[in-house]
Amino acid sequence: MTLLGGLMFCGALRAESCPAWRPERLQLEITALKNQLERWDVAYYQQGDSLIEDQVYDSLRQKLQLWHRCAGLERVEEPSSLLPAGKTPHPVAHTGLHKLADPAAVDQWLRGRSDVWVQPKVDGVAITLVYRDGELAAAVSRGNGLQGENWLEKVRAIPAIPAAVKDAPATLILQGELFLMVNGHQQKIHGGINARSTVAGALMKNRLSPVLQQIGLFVWAWPDGPKEMTQRLQQLAAMGFPLALAYSQPVSSLDDVRQWRERWYREALPFVTDGVVIHQARSPQGRYWQAKPGDWAVAWKYPPVQQVARVNDVEFSVGRTGKIAVVLKLDPLRMDDKWVSRVNLGSLPRWRQWAVVPGDQVAISLMGNGIPRLDKVAWRTTERIEPSAPAADRYHALSCFTWLPECRQQFLARLVWLGGPQGLGLHGVSESTWQVLIDQGLVRHLLDWLVLTPEQLMSAPGIGDKRGRSIHRQFQLARQQPFARWLIALGVPLSLQQTQALKSWHQIRQLPVGEWRKMTGIGAKKAEQITGFLQHPPFLTLVSTLEAQEITGFVGTQ
């Protein structure tokens, strides 16, 4: 979770529109989500327990802000009132960062600025450290930016933070990020791993947590320190704070910033990051800092590995073999370098297990091959209207060889398979072509296309003379395909290799179940599936049609 969540500018949020809900329902959803966020906030800020992933929480808080705007309500305040009642003042205020949305905003910010540096934006918990005469004297949580909790006892238990420093000014004030130390963390691959919440939980516990041994510190501000960045970084390293020197780079252009941002996004680092911070080396004197973003430093965040999107619809499709696939249609999300508006949920039982309905908010990430994946249902809408799903027992490997309204999807899928590269290889005959022929009533049975004339094809909407003749030629060439290809095209559950020894329908009819089991890759269950398919009356009707059309291998089947 983040205390600055309301300051974030999220590209995904821009792509989401106001939900098409009645005003009464919108208010109901706002109240429900607000109450849930408050329960998570109480657990996080007062008990040190994170009950939800950081990125999912941030996304849902942004959803609440969006819904407030949609309802014409005032902006939702951040949960600062739920913070432990810290009373320890910061000697210098914590300023926070403006978040830049895109390269254009970064380029504009850089114009006219000099002596600019970029650092990883370490994902952790902000803190102030105060050393007096070289000894650690105070450690204050960020709190509201002006005062926070006294964390001195816990910080003294963190080995990575020096208890004493040499060659430091009489009073040394540092601001930085307490982070979870990790080995070889690649942000693009591993994401946030809830590191921020782990650190926050350890610091908010009443007892000293073993996690304190795994916490490091990245110093990102030395108010009133040396004016030159190089000198500042070197002195920090000499005092025992080396990370800023190792991970600070001078930049002068958008390309420079982009290069380091991309590099740190992909390469192994010792901490979790969520973007980069771009600093001007010089900043105002610390006494002028305020608990709001300054203009001398900004953040350019990474696209979150996991994002939350609203489900607009649940789409069901019946495939060639009768399997029902479920796809969630989403508000568009920008993830990595692509827009995501759909996620495949898998089978009907899997959808029922997830129990997703339109209006739900789901957490989405990209798998290694860039395919969207549903990670969790982040928020369930209060008004749950379950879409009507196809009857699972209606569709199977032996259903829908003929067009019927309820067979629309499976019948079309059979035609697409039949004409595809694994079937008869009908070049230029796509799914949309088959759909036109179905819509015009020209194809009602799986093999009706065999007897279509060029004139019938040319008269179909969107086909025309030239394409109609080309399609007719493909249909005629299909007659010359070998018997094995026809078996595959019709959907017989055999591989092309398994069909090579089969030369005619007459031969197949003579094969008992035991002979099928002798073939490579065919067991008892598979043999029963094959014989059941070959004896199915609608399939036998197709065989009769092919015999009447004198297709090789089917002639003389009676």
UniProtKB/TrEMBL annotation:
Protein name from the UniProt record: DNA ligase B
Gene3D superfamilies reported for this sequence: 5' to 3' exonuclease, C-terminal subdomain, DNA ligase/mRNA capping enzyme, Helix hairpin bin, Nucleic acid-binding proteins
NCBIfam families (alphabetical): PRK08097.1
Assigned protein family: Belongs to the NAD-dependent DNA ligase family. LigB subfamily.
Protein purpose: Catalyzes the formation of phosphodiester linkages between 5'-phosphoryl and 3'-hydroxyl groups in double-stranded DNA using NAD as a coenzyme and as the energy source for the reaction.
Organism: Serratia plymuthica
Short name of one Pfam family: DNA_ligase_aden
Taxonomic superkingdom: Bacteria
Catalytic activity: NAD(+) + (deoxyribonucleotide)n-3'-hydroxyl + 5'-phospho-(deoxyribonucleotide)m = (deoxyribonucleotide)n+m + AMP + beta-nicotinamide D-nucleotide
